[in-house]
Amino acid sequence: MIKPAENTPHDQPRRSVLLALAWYDYRAHIGASRYALEHGWHLDATMAQSNEFAHGWQGDGILCKLGCTKLHPDYLQFVQDLALPAVDLSVFGQDIGLPSLEFDPYDIAGVARDHFFERGLHHFAFFPDDNNPPIRIRKDAYVKTLAKQGHDAHLIPAFTDQTKEKAWQQAAKDLGEHLLTLPRPLGVLCFSDEWGLKVLEACQRVGLSVPEDVAVLGINNNTLVCESLSTPLSSVMLDMEAWAYEACRMLDRLMDGGPAPKGLTPFPTAGVVTRRSTDVVATDHPEVAKAVAFIASNYHRPIGVDDVVEATRMTRPGLKRAFSKNLRRSIREEIQRVRLRHIKRLLIETDYTLETIAKEVGLAGARQLHQTFNRVEPLTPRQYRLQHRDPDPRRRG
User: Fold this and answer.
1) Sign of the C-alpha dihedral, residues 128, 131, 135, 136?
2) β-pairing verdict for 234-237 and 272-273
3) Is the four-CA dihedral 197, 202, 204, 207 of positive or negative sign?
């Protein structure tokens, strides 16, 4: 249990802060609540999940989100009318001079690109192709990030149908038929998990296999969306709690009379949570594909490079060259990549000890797990677990 800051004098009035959110996520609410408890705030959640505006509200500051995919003018007007210090959790506040904190689109693009590259993909797309600022900013960052590596990104329209009776069915059909025209295997980055769901439904409608034909990657890692699907959705993890907590810190400085940050302040992502929708390694080389399948099926055993070579019809030097050419990594790196993915999954989804997790992924013990983990991660396994796991134990194994 988090206690209010002990250095807050009892006779000092508590700051009252309003949550005015045009788009709600419980994790952001948790982050704001944690800051409020630690710093002695009264956090008013009247408008956290309601469109009933608290006109005339009196307090010290506002943590707002003026929109998700598009601006909500009524929220903008409400915040302007109150004329209090405010921080916006979107890209829209910067246009009216509000400090704005949003997830870094180039960081999102970079981790998505690397995720697809690790799977040997050479064809990429973004969905939807939309000019509303939040979508456009992520789309443009993804296009530019891929262009630096010599790749294009196909931009997929946001199909809609004007006849309300068949709007959903027709949009899914149009999207599926468009996906059929694109080169495969294809990696599709979606603006959010909800947009990723649309791609999964469209693929199912036209018979495209996920992830073999189309690998689908969402953004946000909303487990309520990603894990309730017939094909669980991989997603770029956005640490909503830390994001809202940092926004509260910015707001506290404003209420203290500090200068307002200009423009948009970017906030880093927390990597990718891999699920079935991108759990594929795309390669046209049959022996590399056989080796990759062997690793995927045997990572829980203490296998090494020699074991992988024996599962193919190639020599060790030949297979090493084929891995480097087709996957841009070595055989050993592929073994470590697969093991690390499962280590992360077990850290997040279970309460297993490090010794137990090590045995589950074919390692000798916790010490070797630490060595494997720390080759690529700046956090220790324990820190990673604390930072990324679901706060609700009912959703863990």
Assistant:
1) positive
2) antiparallel
3) negative
- Whether 133 and 172 map to the same domain: the answer is yes
Question: Do 158 and 234 have their domain in common?
Answer: yes
Structure tokens at 185: 């295997």
Query: 125 with 232, same domain?
Result: yes
Under 8 Å between Cβ of 363 and 302: yes
d(CA 189, CA 269): 15
- Any idea how long the chain is? 397
Q: Is 3 within a domain?
A: no
Write out pLDDT tens, residues 65-98: 999 989 999 999 999 999 999 999 999 999 888 9
pLDDT in tens, 119-176: 889 999 999 999 999 999 999 999 999 999 999 999 999 987 555 656 778 888 999 9
Contact, 370 vs 381, CB < 8 A?
A: yes
What one-character DSSP code corresponds to residue 148? T
- Residues of the domain holding 26: 16-102+240-267
**Beta strand segments in 234-375, E:** 234-237, 264-267, 272-273
Q: Is-above-0.85 flag for pTM?
A: no
Provide the mean pLDDT of the chain.
90
C-alpha distances in Å from residue 84, one per residue of 57, 64, 265: 10, 11, 20
Which of 221, 255, 278 is the last residue before a domain boundary? 278
* Domain CATH code at residue 143: 3.40.50.2300
Instruction: Count Cβ atoms below 10 Å from residue 373 Cβ, excluding itself.
Output: 22
Write phi, then psi, for 60 (nearest 5 degrees): -110, -25
- Same domain? For 245 and 219 the reply is no
- Least Cα distance to 141 among 303, 252, 269 occurs for 269
Kindly report each contact of residues 73-79 with a partner whose C-beta sits within 8 Å and lies 24 or more positions away, as own/partner.
Answer: 75/20, 75/22, 78/20, 78/53, 79/20
CATH of the domain at 359: 1.10.10.60
Backbone angles phi and psi of 171, in degrees to 5: -65, -40
Q: Which residues are registered as beta bridge partners of 224?
A: none
Measuring CA to CA, which residue among 230, 217, 310 is closest to residue 272? 217
Closest CA to 369 of 349, 392, 394, 340: 340
Same domain for 149 and 230, yes or no, is yes
Q: Is residue 7 part of a domain?
A: no
Instruction: Report the domain count for the chain.
Output: 3
Residue 309: what residue type?
V
Q: CA–CA separation, 336 vs 195, rounded Å?
A: 31
